Amino acid sequence: MATPATRRSPATEAWKLVGDLMATQRGWFLDVVREFELSPPQLFALRALEPGEATPMGDLAAHLHCDNSNVTGIVDRLERRGLVERRAATHDRRVKHLVLTDEGVAVRRRIETRLEAGPNPLAALDPADQRALRDLLRKAAAAQES
Amino acid sequence: MATPATRRSPATEAWKLVGDLMATQRGWFLDVVREFELSPPQLFALRALEPGEATPMGDLAAHLHCDNSNVTGIVDRLERRGLVERRAATHDRRVKHLVLTDEGVAVRRRIETRLEAGPNPLAALDPADQRALRDLLRKAAAAQES
DNA sequence: TATTGTTATACTCTATAACTATA
DNA sequence: TATAGTTATAGAGTATAACAATA
Known about the structure:
The structure is a homodimer. Chain A has seven helices and three strands, in the order αααβααββαα. By secondary structure, the first copy, chain A, is mainly alpha-helical. In chain A, α4 crosses α5 (68-80). The radius of gyration of chain A is 19 Å and the shape is globular. Chains A and B meet through α1, α2, α6 and α7 of A and α1, α2, α6 and α7 of B. Chain A binds a DNA duplex through α3, α4 and α5.
């Protein structure tokens, strides 16, 4: 028998509610991915690369929670589309740095805008509740980092 | 230039914080998936099938946001492992119903328990904040359904 | 004619192991 | 010896198109 909702801690139930909310938005998220003609890992990679920063391939692999060997192919495809470039690192010649091209930066920005403008299930709350929720989540995020 | 955090609505910032929280837990989630020797779609499929209920293949495809043809393979593998069974539907002989086996029900329950017991970034909040957060999310979920 | 599930096909993601060039 | 990235390989997910059985 599953734990009844009333037996779960508020944090556990809240976490489950967060998961449910995310699940309801998954279809929309996949639509955005296809709108940009990317795959989910490719879109995650673009979001992971900060404009103006140089990211080692291995760091991207860690961010994507996959093996280094996978990143080779993912970056190959982004590079072929002119969104990313590989550059030699100066301090260690084994390392290759990833840098967004100008178009990569532009596409990344359009993606961020698109995701932010999407259907937000929290917008259904009244303004006071929205602010209260935001503040609690900020607090949780801050506690998370420590 | 990106929208400054202060120019975003509280709901937008809250939604972004939710996404960030989920992202920090992705590695742990993938660990659980591998612990059960499943793939993410296979685990989502098990979670979608309610014990004692018969689910048409097409309904599962809609739930997973993929084409019907993909479900054939995903279900093949779950069936080969003895977690799911295909059954003929009575009212429409084109339809095949999916039913969890006894072992499928047991594995599904273990998965739910494991996911619920996992690291919960919201547990860092004090109890009063946890309850407040839970209540706000309940409200958002309720508003979502209408 | 339209729909459900399957098959065939091509592409992408994924992990593992072996390789290279560095360190 | 160890590490960063690549290549080779095999298995899995994904969409599209074509198909059989059924509606």
